[in-house]
Amino acid sequence: MTKKPDENKKVEFKYLVIIEPLGFLYGSAGRFLSPENLVGRSGESFPPSSATLSGIFAAHLGNEKIQDLYLAGPFWGKTESILKKQKFYVPTPLTYLVKDEKLKHKLTWDSDKQGWFDEKMESPTDKFEKGTWIAISEWENPTKVKKFPWKFSPHLHPRLEKNQRRVVTKESEEETEEQGSLFLENAVEMKPNTCLVYLSTHTLDSGWYRFGGEGHLVDINCIKLDPKHKKLLNKPVEEQFALITPAVWGSNRLSYRQPILLENSENSDRQNNNSSTHKEAWSVETLYTSRPQTFRYRMGNHDNPQPHQPKLLSRGRYAVPAGTVYVLKKPLGCWQNWDENWFPKEGPSLKRFGCGLALPL
Questions:
Q1: Is residue 225 pLDDT above 90, yes or no?
Q2: pLDDT classification of 171: cutoffs 50, 70, 90
């Protein structure tokens, strides 16, 4: 009988999962190409979410042992620095304005003036860099930022005919309509001596694993999480905090910018599409964010126990991006104690994947 996890039990991250690529990694597939559609790089997405890593845990530990599994990420670091000092990088809060790889301004919310201002009480209007990272060891007083250490390397995969080196134009002799058979894989090349990093409540045996699509291999190691990182993760986020992982709020049908509480779960969601009918879990004064990003993952098909079983695609949702800063009217405790009901569920709660992991500012 499968053991059910204790909902609202305090989550305790104990390990760092270090993933070193053995060659290219998978950066999500672009669209199938045809003479009418030559747009192939719109599907880029990297690094993989913790849901991808959850699949490895499920495959090697079994369903029963991962009922209380929690993961968070993605992050990255230099392999040597992680092994020696556990120095890894998390997304920069969006209120930290970066230019020429330097922190130029730190915005704070002024309740009286109802606006975001820097140290000189000004609102900068210059163009600033996006997608930067800061060391978690410098979270409370960051001075430097880093750019991500990977680049996309598209590979075109044509499907060839059996008897000659020619691209297949139709599936079978019965089909007369021609179709394209070019497939663009957005492979990712990481710089030498860099790796991806995830937080985990469970450990995994060291070794080589298939990580992501297209059969790319990685070397995975687990090390115990440093107590100073545990202390930071267990700090209450209070009234102002920043997300270091994407956050999906709402239900299985609707996405919101903050957690909501549905009176009758999915039935209430279907009958009332107006957000005003939903009770908000937080008293948000304001937030500083950017465009939402898509969030989707694949799950194992339990109805088909055969090897290499087809995967089920989860419901597509929109996530609040990492780096978003929230300002609340009432303080909150640490993420580990947040209510499971704040997170959507499709099988497991999305809290399992570290959805909305936050640190205080």
A1: yes
A2: low
Judged by phi (left if over 0) then psi (alpha if -120 to 50, else beta), residue 38 lies in alpha
Measured in degrees and rounded to the nearest 5, phi and psi for residue 102 equal: -130, 145
Whether omega before 360 lies within 30 degrees of 0, making that bond cis, reads no
Burial of 149 (0-12, 13-18, 19+ CB in 10 A): middle
Residues 4 and 8: their CA atoms lie apart, in Å, by 12
Q: What is the mean pLDDT of residues 115-125?
A: 91
Domain parsing of the chain, residue ranges: 1-92+131-234, 235-361
Which pair of structure tokens corresponds to residue 206? 């060291």
Q: Which pair of structure tokens corresponds to residue 267?
A: 């039935």
Contacts of residue 191, Cβ cutoff 8 Å, sequence gap at least 6: 149, 150
- For 53-200, list the strands marked E by DSSP: 71-78, 89-91, 96-99, 102-106, 108-110, 115-117, 132-135, 146-147, 150-158, 182-190, 194-200
Segment 249-275, tens digit of pLDDT: 988 788 999 999 876 544 445 444 444
Global pTM value: 0.86
Instruction: Using alpha carbons, select from 190, 187, 188 the residue that is nearest to residue 157.
Output: 187
Distance CA 287, CA 110 (A): 12
Class of domain 235-361: mainly beta
239, two tokens: 């009234």
Encoded tokens for 258: 């903050």
Beta-ladder partners of 153: 187
d(CA 239, CA 241): 7
Rounded Cα gap, residues 249 and 251, in angstroms: 7
SS3 call for 19:
strand
Report the C-alpha dihedral over residues 70, 74, 78, 84, rounded to 10 degrees.
-20
pLDDT in tens, 322-358: 999 999 999 999 999 999 999 998 878 999 999 999 9
Helical ranges in 219-320 per DSSP H: 227-233, 265-271
Bond from prior residue into 47 cis (ω within 30 degrees of 0): yes
